[in-house]
Amino acid sequence: MSVDFSIDDGVARVTLNRPDRMNAVDEPTENELERIWTEIEANSAIRCVVLTGAGDRAFCAGADLKSDDGKTGIEYWTSLNPNGFGGIALRQSLKVPVIGRVNGVALGGGMEMALGCDIVIASETARFGLPEAKVGRLPVAGGIVMLPRLIPQKIAAGLMMTGRLMPANEAASYGLANSVVPAADLDAEVDRWVADVLSCAPLALAAIKATIKQTSHLAAMEASQLKLPELLAALGSEDGEEGVAAFREKRPPQWKGR
């Protein structure tokens, strides 16, 4: 399979497994990724997702140009998954936190997938880039609209208009990565972040994610008044009472997700 998928103790791991192609995504891989995200959305036992690429050279090198099906640029654009590259770059329906384990280059669609993650942990050897213009293409599966919303406009424009690669530490300085560590420490750092995510109430995390995803275009006052379903579910949950009780009783909370 071009994508490995496993679930263990509430943690789903999605691994692009095409190391010989720098984990580039062809059409069958894109379809499998969409199937996996849909399965994750339907599984309430999953509380966190780790997305990565096999090997140590690439997180994902984007679309597999060697498997190009001959579509024109406009045909490619109009046939794109509305959820963005890899089914994750622009996805709004996934409620659980997604941690991007960026173990190497994240180029084109690979960077778009990293932009779609909630948390990004990168190896010092990782590099980020949207070099589509160098081959006459555009990062229309998420990057061209998302990057200028996440970092200063001129930095985003410079990256896309030159095709340059941004080192992990520089990406972190602009807020594109939460943590950058030596390659040997990457898994341990990801595990620490996973543990911290799992220590939080699932409905609270869903409400935080929904608020970030659905209100970033609004003024703060307007956003604060939105009664999102995820927000109401978290505020009225049993877990909300359990968290306070556990704090008072000086014990770990027992989350039920309701």
Distance between the termini: 35 Å
Tell me, what's the shape? globular
Element pattern in H and E = EEHEEHEEHEEHHEHEHHHHH
Q: Quickly give the structural class.
A: alpha/beta
Uncertain segments are none
Spatial order of the strands forming the largest sheet: 1-2-3-5-7-10
- Strand fraction: 15-25%
Percent range of helical residues: 40-55%
Q: What value does the Rg take, in angstroms?
A: 19 Å
* Number of beta-strand segments: 10
Global mean pLDDT: 94
What's the number of helices?
Answer: 11
Largest sheet: 6 strands, mixed
How is this structure best described in words?
- Helix 4 (143-150) runs antiparallel to helix 5 (153-162) and helix 8 (202-215) packs antiparallel against helix 10.
- With 258 residues, the chain is α/β, with parallel strands linked by helices.
- It has helices at residues 27-41, 73-78, 109-116, 143-150, 153-162, 168-173, 186-198, 202-215, 220-224, 229-235, 238-249, and strands spanning 3-8, 11-16, 48-53, 58-60, 98-102, 105-107, 119-123, 127-129, 166-167, 179-181.
- It contains eleven helices and ten strands.
- A six-stranded mixed beta sheet has the order 1-2-3-5-7-10, with helices on both faces. Strands 4-6-8-9 form a four-stranded mixed beta sheet.
- Helix 1 links the parallel strand 2 and strand 3 (48-53).
- 40% of the residues lie in helices and 16% in strands.
